[in-house]
Amino acid sequence: MAYKTIQVKTEGRVGVITLNRPEALNALCDALTGELAEALAAFERDEDIGCVVLTGSRKAFAAGADIKELQSRDQVSLYLNDPFAQTWESVARFRKPIIAAVSGYALGGGCEIAMMCDFIIASETAKFGQPEINLGVMPGSGGTQRLPRAVGKAKAMDLCLTGRMMDAEEAERAGLVSRVVPADDLMDTVMEAAEAIATKSLPVAMMTKEAINRSFEVGLTEGVLFERRVFQSQFSLEDQREGMAAFAEKRAPHFKHR
Ligand code: HXC
């Protein structure tokens, strides 16, 4: 499939999607988010893919929604033809593990798309922010919901109300990113993490992701019950028998479903 605004490749069991609109710092126009949704759907269907990496350029993961495109939209058109519900949320709905590799700007919708991924690994040059308020709007693709869950109320309010950017070090301290690495090491580090994930049992990795995401939706008692039932169900998997047998036999596991 030939894409115009993204690049897609596979390395072993890892799918890599690179946002590719350098002339606009990877601003998320409808064409790009449409292609992103298509690429994710293809990786979701592909049994040989166990983990996906979403990245941008060294200068920008994505500088937000495409402001020039958004400028002419009105309320009815956004309601009737809602790009966020149609394509953007494909990242949040993606069922396999997905890592955001962020270098440079992750602003507005760029920060929101990164937060829809399961975790973010950032380069030292990364800058995160929700500057929508400077444009006379607020975040519209999860920024007011996922950011406070990631960094707490104080910092989310600070970022969304002032529109300021935070650097990678502050983002790591706040819990938005899982690791910060030198820019030159970003892709190697992320690929190593993705390859490690892709060697696990895929259904178990997917269930783990589902359970962690569930913790943001339900209370503790319900969440722990969900976890326990899913854990119990995993004892019907060949991969559970293989994983535990491999440990007892002091060898590496070879999961069937991976
Ligand atoms: C469209 C954009 C863009 C954007 C940058 N460009 N960001 N085009 N939408 N979000 C374009 C510029 O117009 C310019 O094109 C080129 O990319 C390079 O950008 P510069 O501004 O010249 O680069 P620089 O001076 O290095 O500044 C980088 C920057 C700045 C700080 C990231 O570009 C910036 O502030 N961008 C907007 C960030 C933002 O407000 N994001 C939130 C968008 S709203 P030309 O053709 O002029 O060379 C949003 C809402 C999401 O995301 C809601 C989801 C539902």
From TrEMBL:
It is an enzyme of class 4 (lyase). SUPFAM superfamilies: ClpP/crotonase (SSF52096). Pfam families: ECH_1. Keywords: Fatty acid metabolism, Lipid metabolism, Lyase. CDD domains: crotonase-like. It catalyses: a 4-saturated-(3S)-3-hydroxyacyl-CoA = a (3E)-enoyl-CoA + H2O; a (3S)-3-hydroxyacyl-CoA = a (2E)-enoyl-CoA + H2O. This is enoyl-CoA hydratase. One of its GO terms (biological process) is fatty acid beta-oxidation. GO terms for molecular function: enoyl-CoA hydratase activity. The lineage of its organism: Bacteria, Pseudomonadati, Pseudomonadota, Alphaproteobacteria, Maricaulales.
